[in-house]
Write a structure and sequence with these properties.
The chain has about 230 residues and is an alpha/beta fold. It folds into two domains: about 150 residues, TPP-binding domain (Rossmann fold, 3-Layer(aba) Sandwich), CATH 3.40.50; about 70 residues, SIR2/SIRT2 'Small Domain' (2-Layer Sandwich), CATH 3.30.1600.10. The chain contains nine helices and nine strands. The chain has a six-stranded parallel β-sheet, with helices on both faces. A three-stranded antiparallel β-sheet has the order 5-4-6. Strand 4 and strand 5 form a beta hairpin. The longest helix has 13 residues. The protein is elongated, with a radius of gyration of 18 Å.
Length: about 230
C-alpha cells in the first residue's frame, strides 16, 4: 500500500459531496465474523453446497438442515463493530450512504444511520406462516413458531430468491447521486451486487480497497487490508 494512495483517498473523501460505500465480508472479519467465501471460510468442509442449503427449498423441505447451518455458521450475536464500521458510519452520517452485502447488522450497531442491507439481515427474524416478528433468543431455541407451528426464518436473501425491489431501487438512486464510490472488503463478484457499479454517476470517482484486485477495469485500486487504510483516515 502506497502512502500517496492513502493521501489521495483522504483528499477524495474530503472533496466529495456524497459518498457511497459498497462493502462486503472483508469489513466484518476483524469483528470475528468469518468470510465464508475465503479459503478458511465457514463453507469449507461442508458436505452440501451453501447455495443448496441456503435456499427456500431447503428452508421449507428440510428446515432442520437449514436451521442448524445458519445457527452453527452464520450467527455471531456477540460480535462488535470494528474501526472500519465506525469510520464508515462517521462519514455516512455526515455525507453518504452505505450499501452492504453483510447481513450481520454491525454497521447499524456502529451507529450508521444510512445503511442499506442489500441482502437483508440475520436479526430480522419472522414466522413464515403468521408473519410475526421473532427475537433471536426465541429463534435460537427452535425454528418452529410455538404460537402457530410455522417455520421461522431470518430475513436474508436466499440463493434462490431475488433482491427486494425496494432495496434495489433505493440502491440505484444512491449510486446515481454519489460522486465518490468506495468499494471495500469485497471481491465484488456476487451478482447483482457487483452490477450496482453500472448505475454510478458518470462523473463519479471509483476507488476499491481490497486484499486482492477486483475484476473491474478502469478504477483506482488500493490493495491491502481495509483496516490499515481506515486507520490512516481522519
Ligand atoms: Zn407463526
Amino acid at each position: 500500500m502506497k502512502q500517496t494512495d492513502l493521501t489521495e483517498l483522504q483528499k477524495e473523501i474530503d472533496n466529495a459531496k456524497h459518498i457511497v460505500f459498497l462493502t462486503g465480508a472483508g469489513v466484518s472479519t476483524h469483528s470475528g465474523i468469518p468470510d465464508y467465501r475465503s479459503k478458511n471460510g465457514i463453507y469449507n468442509g461442508v458436505q452440501e453446497s451453501p447455495e443448496t442449503i441456503l435456499s427456500e427449498n431447503t428452508l421449507y423441505e428440510r428446515p432442520e438442515i437449514f436451521y442448524h447451518f445458519v445457527m452453527n455458521n452464520m450467527y455471531f450475536p456477540k460480535a462488535q463493530p470494528n474501526l472500519i464500521h465506525q469510520k464508515i458510519a462517521q462519514i455516512c452520517n455526515k455525507k453518504g450512504d452505505l450499501i452492504t452485502q453483510n447481513i450481520d447488522r454491525l454497521d447499524t450497531k456502529a451507529g450508521n444511520k444510512h445503511v442499506t442491507e442489500f441482502h437483508g439481515n440475520l436479526y430480522n427474524i419472522y414466522c413464515t406462516k403468521c408473519h410475526h416478528s421473532i427475537s433471536y433468543e426465541e429463534y435460537s431455541q427452535n425454528y418452529i413458531h410455538q404460537n402457530c407451528g410455522g417455520i421461522i426464518r431470518p430475513g436474508i436473501v436466499l440463493y434462490d430468491e431475488s433482491i427486494n425491489p425496494e432495496t434495489l431501487t433505493k440502491s440505484i438512486e444512491i449510486m446515481q447521486k454519489s460522486d465518490l464510490v468506495i468499494i471495500c472488503g469485497t471481491s465484488f463478484v456476487v451478482y447483482p451486487f457487483a452490477q450496482l457499479l453500472a448505475y454510478s454517476n458518470e462523473k463519479a470517482k471509483i476507488i476499491a480497497i481490497n486484499k486482492t484486485e477486483i475484476p473491474t477495469p478502469g478504477i483506482k485500486q488500493i490493495i491491502g487490508d481495509a483496516i490499515d487504510v481506515f486507520k490512516f483516515l481522519n
